[in-house]
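User: Predict the full complex structure for these chains.
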Amino acid sequence: MTEKLSEATRGPLLDPLFQSGWALVEGRDAIAKTFSFTSFVDAFGWMTKVAIWAEKWNHHPEWSNVYNRVDVLLTTHDVNGLSALDAKLARKMDKLA
Amino acid sequence: MTEKLSEATRGPLLDPLFQSGWALVEGRDAIAKTFSFTSFVDAFGWMTKVAIWAEKWNHHPEWSNVYNRVDVLLTTHDVNGLSALDAKLARKMDKLA
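Assistant: Here is the predicted structure of the two-chain assembly.
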């Protein structure tokens, strides 16, 4: 079952993501990062890989794309905030980038 | 060569798009539309088809996706406004949706 991150779990799960460029979003319990690629094909190719994992895990990003740039925001609507799924998808996005 | 739409060409190219749900964007010479699908797979599948045409025509949308919804904005950066390419890509998006 998906649960909102507790105070005890936030640090261990989120700190490594802050080191890799993720940041908390103002006004929402969410994390965001901008990914830049060398071309639209690379950007959308990455989105396609992420999309398959997102669907597999039934956890989808809010994201926008302009040419070689993808802005991503992750949060878990079911718990109205960050859950372990967000950290898991963020790590996957980093790994695929 | 891509040229900004003239007053004479705007109506014939844009009016049919306004009929299909496209609208002018405030503050930018651009058109926008929200596409809704029945699932993330359908939304992203549509984006993938559009992405291939966008790359083929070297004309890329500004777009964002949240689950089954895709918000699209089209404009032509090279001419700082709408060109025939935007109308062409908009028609393709409608056809593929």
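Chain A has three helices and four strands.
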